[in-house]
Amino acid sequence: MSTALSRADAEAPAANAFHAALGRTAVVSLYDELALEPKPGLVSFADAGSHDDMDASTFLRSLFALRHFFVRVAAQGAASADFAPLEALGIAAETRMLRATGGVNTHRGAIFTLGLLCAAAGATGRACDAATLRGTLMARWSRALADRATRASDSHGARAARRHGLRSAAEEAAQGLPTLFEHVLPALRAARRAGADERGARLHALFTAMAEVDDTNLVHRGGLQGLRDAKSLARRFLADGGGLGAGAVARAARVHATFVERRLSPGGAADLLAAACWVDRVERMAR
Questions:
Q1: Structural domain of residue 215, as residue ranges?
Q2: Most CB contacts within 10 A, which of 163, 164, 205, 259?
Q3: SS3 helix, strand, coil % of the chain, rounded to 5?
Q4: For residue 41, what is the domain's CATH number?
Q5: Helix axes 108-124 and 267-286, enclosed angle (nearest 10)
């Protein structure tokens, strides 16, 4: 028994360090998303996009408030937690976020998506490649997430999804985040392999997310037509070369101007970009 206890004591600091690394990576990945510009309608260090109630400093306050949440949710995943404790941590994190931002929702979607990914990585351990992360998420929590998707939620996104028959964030999660793992993460890596710099690769991933996901943030601001038009503009950007080449930034800036004029903001796509940056970093960390 003493040998087993000694082994557990020796492994505990390493496990805690791993959870802390997962949490730091989540915060860094959210910073990656904030720092990218031009992003259509979204907040960056360059401007506030389509928003009157937030700017980059609001996002930085939010990130600081959330830094411990991602560590704690990874530890819950390692402890084989059911979905209920993860949800409780997420609700508490939302409260901290709103307190830090004066009531502005900067990262509710990221709390949900990145929180689940951190929990899955905690459950998986250090050998967490994309396929294993997705498999762990689905094996552990897909049923609870599907149940959550059927609950009546009063968020803007949930109302928009119900009204228009769109796939909600909870439904995406219950299906193992298909847009992230089948489209956005591959787009990030494909752009790099094709020679894009990191800015171009992230633009490529962001516009791929915009083209694929049913972003209810867009529906809330611009109706179903806003979502359709945003997807069309994103697909045109990708068809014209995406994030590759010297003209990518100028083309993204033109789409940004259109989104600002129409007050559109693809927050769901931004969350998926941050998630792709996180998975990419965690895979490299695990090698």
A1: 2-286
A2: 205
A3: 75, 0, 25
A4: 1.10.4200.10
A5: 20
